[in-house]
Amino acid sequence: GMHSGANLMGWTAPEADIFAAEARRCGVPQELITVESRSANTGENIRFSCELLEAEAEPIRTLIVVQKPFMTRRAYATFRKQWPTQPAP
Q1: How far apart are CA 36 and CA 20, in angstroms?
Q2: Residues in the chain where the model's pLDDT stays below 50
Q3: How many Å apart are CA 68 and CA 19, to the nearest integer?
Q4: Which residues lie closer than 8 Å to 3 by C-beta, 6 or more apart?
Q5: What is the DSSP secondary structure assignment for residue 11, as one 8-state letter?
Q6: What distance in Å separates the CA atoms of residue 2 and residue 63, rounded to the nearest whole number?
Q7: What does the pLDDT read at residue 30?
Q8: Is the dihedral of CA 67, 72, 76, 81 positive or negative?
């Protein structure tokens, strides 16, 4: 799946890379992982992820947005604004 986010927490790598490594450790095959590590905010997360996913050969059938509980409404609203062609998650 998609992993998005730059290094904003002082980690040794962008958070997208850290979460992608954890997904691989949990058994997700590398070929099923797409990483976007440039974004610095929720809007960029969604916009840059949209660009990457729409460039892939397979059309998007299902999309799940995962976020911290206190960020859920912001993520949903930002998703609807930044990627209006995709059905609401």
Answers
A1: 10
A2: none
A3: 14
A4: 16, 17, 19, 20, 23, 33, 34, 35, 36
A5: -
A6: 9
A7: 93
A8: negative
Tell me the C-alpha distance between 82 and 75, whole Å. 10
Q: Which of the 8 DSSP states describes residue 60?
A: P
Determine the Cα–Cα distance for residues 19 and 42; give it in Å rounded to an integer: 16
Tokens of 39: 């974004």
| Residue 6 and residue 16 in contact, taking contact as beta carbons nearer than 8 Å | yes
Cα–Cα distance for residue pair 33/62, rounded to 1 Å: 15
Please list the alpha-helical segments (H only) found in 1-89. 15-25, 42-55, 72-82
Query: For residues 69 and 52, what is the distance between their CA atoms, to the nearest angstrom?
Result: 25
**CB distance 18 to 62 below 8 Å:** no
Residue 53: its pLDDT value, please?
85
